[in-house]
Protein 1
Amino acid sequence: MPTFAYLAPATTEEALAVLAEHRDDAKVLAGGQSLVPLLNYRLARPRVVVDINGLPLDGLSVAMGTLRLGALTRHAALEESLELARSCPVLREAAALIGNVRVRTLGTLGGSLTHADPAAELPMVMVALDAQLTVAGRDGRRTIAARDFFTGPLSTVLAADELLIGIEIPMTRDMGGAIEEVSRRAGDFAVVATTALVRVDRRGRIDDARLAVAGVGPTPLRVAAAEEALVGSEPTAERIARAADAARASVTPDSDAFVSAAYRRLLVGVLARRALTRAVTRALEVS
Amino acid sequence: MRLSLHINGRPREVDVEPSQTLLDALRETLGIFDVKEGCGEGVCGACTVLLDGRPVSSCLLLAATTAHRAITTVRGLEDDGELHPLQQAFLRHGAVQCGFCTPGMLLTGVAYVQGHPGADREALRHAIEGNLCRCTGYAKILDALEDYARETKRG
């Protein structure tokens, strides 16, 4: 591993001062499950590693129709949270799918979002949930919609002297949600992953539908064509199949050494149908 | 930097570089070789230790971040010279081939079954999916885990 200086600031202000001083020479260490492999392989060579684990950015709370999560919330805490089981089960489902159990012990929500792997579960789910990300800088705080946060593979709008501190999610307790993904081996990043959220109104029609897809582009995507195919309709198998077809038709994935673009597109259709079907079943239970 | 690590119930003072992983500090600095190094990227599970009772990859953890936290290696499973019930189950079922994955399998298995007493084979299979056995001796490992999980249910 390359040598670096190790700093462990005790407050967010202190951390921001350190980042402002070192900018691109500094790397933020949260759970370390993406950064430490990069260090081990010398793909990252920071001069300074800024350990933020001592900052008070942990915790999960629900108030006034909003779910608030600290950036240092561990995947294991999401996976095991009884509060999330009630208020946002789809986020719990996403956390349980991440990496292996050791990654989930240490890995953090903020770390996954700022690392921004295009196939990762949490960025995709945040895009589906219309989450708002709160970022602190030396001049104050700003809030960014999850959809606007990701700019490309491993790239976000976060500046070198900024820190993601918290995530706010509007409550979706009246929606049914589900995640479906295919990965090559247990613990691998997904080849394609989909998140579906559906709400059914009193007349039995879908009045809100969201479909997010990961693994088919530089960032997680919302598939408007599929969402439009559902809203206003009864949640029949035919209608879900039509929305899944629309999803497949609207993505333009690339091929890589393991998976062709055609197979990825096929997966989008199949996984969208499965996720929407499960989401509808759950939506009918909670409506 | 000087650190106080808490390993298998004993405090150990150690000098580490900020860039040293816990795996490196355990093996190279402290000579604790029951922790194995496999892939170095958190995938294989050979370097699993328990941190405050939860499994982590010691290759993906800077030693500097582990001061004053409880670190358990496979040696820490023994109680007063007596092997842990899961270790005994591994012996009964011959669940060890080359042995390289065994410390990680044991620690992952113990942590999981303690949280899920009586877990069934399917759940156990899922629980160890992040621990690779390159001898592919999974059937006997699962037999041993299942046996141990049954004991925890009775107890």
Protein 2
Amino acid sequence: MTKRLFTELKKSVLSLIAVTLLWCLVSSVADSTVGRAQLVAVTTPKHDFSSGAVVGGNPLDTNVAVSSTHVCITTRAGFKCFTKYGNPVSPGTASCDANGFPIRPVAFAAGALLAREFFSRSCLFVPPDTDAGSTKDGRIVFGSAYKRFFMVFQNRIDRDRPARLLIAVSKSEDPRDGWWTYIDEVGGNSNSLDYQFLGVNSSILVVSNKMKLMDANNAAIQKWTDHTIYGVAELTQGSASYVKKIWPAYNTAAVCNGCAEEPPFGPYSPENPPRRRMSPPVSSWPRPAFTRVRPATFSGFTATATSTRRCSVGEAAR
Amino acid sequence: MTHRRTAILHGGFKPVNGEQKDNTADGNPAPAILYTNGAGANYQNCVVRNNKLVAAANIGQKWANNGGLVSNAVRLIRVDVSNFFAGSGPLPVEIERIFGKSAPDDPVDQVFHYGWPAVATNANGDIVVGSVRTRETIFPEQRASVLFAGDSALRPSVSIRRGLDMAVDGHYHMAGAAADPVTNAVYLAQEYPVSGNRRVHITKMLGTNRPDVIPLSLTAPSTLARGATYSASLTVMNQGDAAMPAFKARLHLSTDDTISAFDASLASFSIRSVAPGETAVVPVSIAIPRTTAAGPYYIGARLDIETSALEHSETNNANPFLRAGRGNIAATVQ
């Protein structure tokens, strides 16, 4: 009996050792090289759907943001929102026509919208797309703290300055409830911008722009990155004015000898590393705690008390 | 003290354009997939979450079985930035993966181009990368790759849309990715061609599918008499991505446009299961209590009052909209 038990135990131990060795072998193979066969399950999509018809140019340069109930995408010059199942939804009710003149309120269709039409029909005056492509580069993020979508397009032509950002903030996490819309000039009469990207937390919306200093012939003679920072609390409430900060101050990077990122611009190597702009002290960077309360001040930034051009799509916010 | 911190990565080559299958007999090669085009050159997509910076970028890569040629690949990195402001020196690179020659499920000895990545991470730290895969014998294909938190290797990538004949040009430029704020899902958005136009394919990876029912609309007489019974019609929609099992609902009479459980109940009833994306119309008989004071009221619904299922949102089971009446209807009791 004892001998039989010992034999069984020995078998079990040997099996355990064999399994352990095999596991280590598999793990080391999987870890060492991407491209080897792996004994792991394929992770398949949980759900998918097509946008259906969209507008906004080619390529679409799509971005996506998700609330607990809806999905919104931007295209190059437009956007479209969906339920999580994939049915398109209306972004609310327009109060102006495509030229910005007041009309009896009418619901937007549940479908794709050009950004310029959306902002104009919210009653903002948006300069026309004289080159059929000056309202573009849509980007969208979802801010979990306030449960709002933040969507930004640029509206600019290098020869018609200054450049503008078109900002829309949903009034809830359901895009059907409507949006607050804003138009904001970025830079001065000698500046243009491009390739903006977004980030949002509980306090600030950061829009990073590739800024350009233009000469009299509308050619960019300097390029750098600036960060335009908006107070989220005001944007989400449709406040008639909002806090806006800019770093660095316009054109300071452009004239900062040896500090600008361009030119030259890559390819980088140890002999030609990317040159970075001088930075403000760490203490001056806005790193607010995760709270809904916007810090009273952002030191170290160029502050602009902005008189806002703000409009609305849909009903008053909750 | 400075915030100039760098992460040291392995070397790489400049991105190169990819190839795709030729769908014509005109003798001209198929247009290349422009992994290096314009603003997209070295395009990088990144996100910071829980002190981890996760980024994916186009790079050029030489693989051992590719005759020394450079093909396009996706580099995925995760960098710990928790000590970004306080520390100094190189940032610790925790994960660096390059996929493009053969993702784990790619056929052996075939060199693919991978590019235009989009990346996002969920609350667990799981990483999802969407990208486009091309080769001279296939049309471009959208794929998704997952690296679970704690895993050292990418899970085999999965095809999410294939056969994308970029016959006019090879532009993709960029894609999008975003994490769901509630579940562990990560959504990918990537464009694709259809008959000369472009559309966007939206794919949900990871997480759980849930229903999400809302009282979409309600019809009932606008004038009601105390002690009388009326017919009402409630339209409910399941806007979620999973079926809603049969559930209980209730209609209320409220003195304001915000319906709550404390408002007078007009009717309690059951609603059958509702498929994802489905709209169901439910006839309801409502009785106005004799004790109701005359005056203006709102009638509205509360759905799933016994919590039959975990939904994407539980707050929109009543008062679903901001618009006047919040989705409820006004009525006068005489």
